[in-house]
């Protein structure tokens, strides 16, 4: 293959690949890039056509692991804005230590940019008109600048996946309100938020957004109010997956999170018609009464820490032998020991025995054995009802 630096259509006698359409040639170059990005870079120098197609692959995914990288790349993108449309994925992941080494008023080596130009970061990302995935894990000094991306009008018209995490001093929770408009992004389908705090004011703005395309929301070790959550969950048109996790001993202590799991179920009621998977792995949450989830008509997978989070803890007050399981429930999973509350065990036993009436589609239950064991009466009831019981951990791990 010869070098034709000023040609878009090299002589077919010398370039047999040149006769292929762009779509097929792009697939070949993608395979070459997976083998060696260096070879792909060399190919991009052959002629204008290969340069254009190789750029679409070389810049498809961009990862910034130091602040210098994103500043110098911003400068490069400013000179060649066309490359911005080739970028589909951007990852900004670097620790506070990287940022602290960069004086905020000092020039970046081999760059006309100054480190104080972090305000231009959101402008740089907004140039990436076809961006679909944005992964943020940077110091909180960049929180407001990146949050401006979501304030609208929306430049990221193709964004589908976003993860947000800002590193705060003393490992504090960052304020989600600074990036609150990410919930209003019209095309976003998956949103992952790590170690953020959010109070009960919710989406407290004069103008509320229209319904959004959000399908999956993950709140990882967040300190979030159920009222605030209820407010932002009114925005998705049809949320399908909700995940909320927290450690056994959160640090710093939780200020906004309530202590009742049922309140978070109520917060999800606006999505009851579409939600398919509901996971709360939050040991700090208790439950005083059995959950009522009959309105969750499409929910097939339900996961939580203990059986008493579903049935409510033992109470001196009498209660009915029932729990409002989702009508289409297929999988029920408990992350931690079950059978530690005798009254709750009786309620679970009754529910299994009445499975064909309470939840006809229920086929699988997952439990763990660590310090405690799954009660034998529960194992026997599952066999009798034709319910697959998968036990994880313990010496007697089994799938009955």
TrEMBL record:
Record Pfam families: F-box (PF00646)
Source organism, top-level taxon: Eukaryota
Domain F-box: 20-55
Record protein name field: F-box domain-containing protein
Species this protein is from: Amniculicola lignicola CBS 123094
């Amino acid at each position: 293959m010869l070098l034709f630096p000023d040609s878009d259509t090299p002589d077919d006698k010398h370039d047999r690949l040149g006769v292929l359409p762009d779509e097929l040639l792009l697939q070949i170059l993608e395979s070459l890039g997976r083998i060696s990005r260096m070879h792909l870079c060399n190919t991009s120098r052959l002629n204008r056509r290969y340069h254009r197609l190789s750029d679409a692959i070389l810049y498809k995914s961009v990862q910034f692991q130091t602040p210098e990288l994103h500043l110098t790349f911003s400068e490069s993108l400013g000179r060649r804005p066309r490359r911005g449309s080739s970028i589909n994925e951007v990852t900004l992941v670097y620790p506070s230590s990287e940022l602290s080494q960069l004086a905020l008023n000092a020039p970046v080596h081999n760059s006309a940019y100054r480190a104080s130009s972090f305000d231009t970061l959101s402008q740089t990302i907004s140039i990436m008109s076809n961006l679909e995935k944005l992964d943020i894990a940077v110091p909180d000094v960049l929180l407001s600048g990146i949050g401006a991306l979501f304030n609208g009008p929306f430049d990221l018209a193709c964004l589908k996946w976003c993860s947000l995490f800002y590193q705060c001093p003393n490992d504090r929770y960052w304020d989600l309100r600074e990036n609150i408009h990410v919930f209003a992004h019209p095309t976003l389908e998956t949103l992952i938020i790590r170690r953020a705090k959010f109070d009960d004011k919710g989406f407290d703005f004069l103008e509320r957004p229209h319904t959004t395309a959000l399908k999956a929301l993950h709140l990882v070790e967040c300190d979030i109010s159920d009222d605030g959550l209820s407010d932002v969950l009114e925005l998705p048109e049809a949320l399908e997956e909700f995940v909320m996790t927290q450690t056994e001993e959160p640090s710093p202590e939780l200020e906004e999170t309530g202590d009742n799991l049922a309140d978070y179920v109520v917060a999800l009621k606006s999505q009851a018609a579409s939600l398919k998977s509901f996971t709360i792995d939050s040991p700090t949450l208790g439950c005083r009464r059995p959950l009522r989830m009959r309105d969750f008509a499409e929910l097939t997978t339900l996961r939580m820490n203990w059986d008493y989070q579903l049935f409510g803890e033992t109470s001196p007050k009498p209660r009915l032998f029932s729990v409002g399981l989702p009508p289409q429930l297929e999988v029920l999973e408990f992350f931690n020991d079950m059978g530690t509350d005798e009254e709750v065990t009786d309620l679970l036993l009754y529910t299994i025995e009445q499975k064909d009436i309470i939840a006809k589609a229920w086929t699988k239950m997952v439990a763990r054995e660590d310090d405690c064991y799954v009660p034998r009466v529960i194992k026997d009831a599952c066999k009798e009802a034709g319910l697959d019981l998968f036990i994880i951990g313990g010496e007697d791990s089994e799938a009955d």
